[in-house]
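Late entry, evening session. Most of the bench is empty. Finally got around to the prediction I had been postponing all week. Sequence below, unchanged from the version circulated by S.P.
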Amino acid sequence: MLPESVRIVEVGARDGLQNLPTPASSETRVELVNLLSQSGLQHIETGSFVSSDYVPQMAGSDQVFKTIKRQSDVVYTALTPNLRGMEDALKAGADEAAVFASASEGFSQKNINCSIAESLKRFEPVMELAKQNSMPVRGYVSCIISCPYDGATTPRQVAEVTKALYQMGCYEVSLGDTVGTGTPLRVKRVLEACCREVSIRHLAAHYHNTYGQALANIYASLEEGLAVVDSAVAGLGGCPYAPGASGNVATEDVLYLMEGLNITTGVQMNKLLEAANFICHQLGIRSHSNTGLALNK
């Protein structure tokens, strides 16, 4: 039984832009978020409060949050990997924070220079400060299918980290196929393992499209009852710590699938295409969305 409605979490303005060889200007980032806000999307990852030494593409996120034209029905999220990041997100007026952990030890070490257990320990003061300020926190688990350093990830590993994030206070945990090697059967096995620990109502899909399987994996997840999908306008993104990983699944492609399934999202395709065309023009790139390319002919 497929869900009647799906919430699309737009990650293009953060996850989609953080791997650019040349950072987009703050003005470009602000305009992208403003255009996305007008499309009917109700959840937009807007920036990240990390060290600019590590992710220069996200420098100036405080100004982005302070400059965007906020819509009252849109949640603007900030990635906050540590206590300093949470403090900065609160000052900037973010509506929601996000923290991330890996299901793979190798990826955790390469990405944030610590073990999975150590990364979860780091989140304790972050979660406490969020609680004190009534700030909702969303969790991410990366490498749910495989890791570029450790190989295959077991569903049990994913379920354990998912459970830990949920028990720490994350209202929702987004399951990331960071390398994009997932297939429907493998994704379903991960969801089954996670659902033994956390209700499907608190899980989301974050699938990269490296092997062209993201939409198939999303459909398989819908069959399991999942009703929250992360995607990036124009298929922007990738992962600097996952060699060969292409971008996120395109929001336009996800929307086309949902419309074909009669699943409500509240997102308007024409407005979404405006945002996609804007950012592709600004970056001088071609859209990675099949739907976008077809509709722009």
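Two things to note before I forget:
The radius of gyration is 17 Å.
Residues 116-132 form the longest helix (17 residues).
Will write this up properly tomorrow.
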